Automatic annotation (TrEMBL):
Family annotation (InterPro entries): Acyl_CoA_acyltransferase (IPR016181), GNAT_dom (IPR000182)
Transmembrane region(s): none
Annotated protein name in UniProt: N-acetyltransferase domain-containing protein
Start and end residues of each N-acetyltransferase domain: 46-183
Organism, scientific name: Lentzea roselyniae
Domain of life where this protein originates: Bacteria
Cross-referenced SUPFAM superfamilies: Acyl-CoA N-acyltransferases (Nat)
Lineage: Bacteria, Bacillati, Actinomycetota, Actinomycetes, Pseudonocardiales
PROSITE patterns, sorted: GNAT (PS51186)
Amino acid sequence: MTASRVVQRLTVADVEPESWELSAPVGYRVERWIGATPEHLLVSVASTRRAIHDAPDTARDPEWTPELVRAAEAEDLAAGVEHRVVVAVEEATGLVVAFTDVQLYPDDFEHTVWHDTVVAPRHRARGLARFVKAHMLRWLLTDRPELERIDTGTAASNFPMIRVNERLGFVTAREVVVVSRSV
Ligand SMILES: CC(C)(COP(=O)(O)OP(=O)(O)OC[C@H]1O[C@@H](n2cnc3c(N)ncnc32)[C@H](O)[C@@H]1OP(=O)(O)O)[C@@H](O)C(=O)NCCC(=O)NCCS
């Protein structure tokens, strides 16, 4: 199996942080945490995360459930990984509808890799992905001024995600073809 992927890089020193000063789209509010998901948001975090399968090439991503979210949190805790999450909550329902997370490793303060960003299908194309990622960037840079660069990999056909990252200051570092097979 082959998959074309784009690696995008944010070099903190090259970006104007003003481009991250975004207000929440009308009808939504931001929430954030390090480590454990607040219990009242757990079910909607898991269901929003399951929509990662709308992205190309995500066959190996888990089918997120509340139990799996808790298991991943426990793994991070045991490994000394700081797991930061930013979500958008729909005011009318109190449910999480947009999610993004970053893991910070204890032995690498200057660099990190950004993994998942997901918006529930009904809430897409309203600026929520850009909003939660911009909020994460402001939060990270406030607490971790030593962070110099962030890399993220996206399927080459995932134009909305690539576009969101570009608007935040990420530039395409390279395109790679990933070849894999089951053993
Ligand atoms: C990718 C995803 C997170 C984007 O979320 P979103 O809230 O809809 O994104 P935003 O509204 O902030 O921005 C979308 C941008 O993509 C653009 N866009 C949307 N569809 C597009 C398309 N088919 N081609 C090119 N650009 C497109 C929008 O115009 C917007 O750009 P703009 O700000 O310049 O107008 C969402 O579609 C999603 O959850 N997809 C499934 C999971 C996924 O692919 N996650 C990423 C892999 S980790």
